[in-house]
């Protein structure tokens, strides 16, 4: 049995294409892997604060020197990191907001990219500690950006996940969703075809 961690980051609960894709992915995955356990972390419903001094204090100070706020920040970061560590498969739903990922997803990454936990520093440089995991990234985009200079999502997420050792990463882009005509339908159909093949 594998554990699947799904991270939703769309601010919309209704009408969200990334959430539609996630639901379809999970349904297909569970059909193919009925014994797998799926955990959903919804960053819109249960927000993760931005990186701040309390979190840094929780990470860096001895327990006896931490304030109540620092202790609470550390507990939250540990919970998020433990979810990731326990997962065999990571599914990130990432709509494109202003050419990048939602700030909520960036905050989640800031909590789980942790020295000594998900990566370590060595004499040869940083080394990721999560090499045994797979990731699927489901994006929703108003225009067409894949492979172009304005696509800041895929390069950033590949780098961030690769930094912690997750290099088996598959992207499924639903593009052209706001371009009118048949573009949205075609973009969604292409994404669903890819999703069916990998899930």
Automatic annotation (TrEMBL):
Binds 1 FMN per subunit. Keywords: Flavoprotein, FMN, NAD, Oxidoreductase. Coiled coil: none annotated. InterPro entries: Flavodoxin_fold (IPR003680), FMN-dep_NADH:Q_OxRdtase_AzoR1 (IPR050104), NADH:quinone_OxRdtase_FMN_depd (IPR023048). This is FMN dependent NADH:quinone oxidoreductase. It catalyses: 2 a quinone + NADH + H(+) = 2 a 1,4-benzosemiquinone + NAD(+); N,N-dimethyl-1,4-phenylenediamine + anthranilate + 2 NAD(+) = 2-(4-dimethylaminophenyl)diazenylbenzoate + 2 NADH + 2 H(+). The keyword Secreted does not apply. The lineage of its organism: Bacteria, Pseudomonadati, Pseudomonadota, Gammaproteobacteria, Pseudomonadales. Pfam families: Flavodoxin_2 (PF02525). Its EC number is 1.6.5.-, 1.7.1.17. The gene is azoR. Residues 2-197 form the Flavodoxin-like fold domain. Belongs to the azoreductase type 1 family. Transmembrane segments: none annotated. Homodimer.
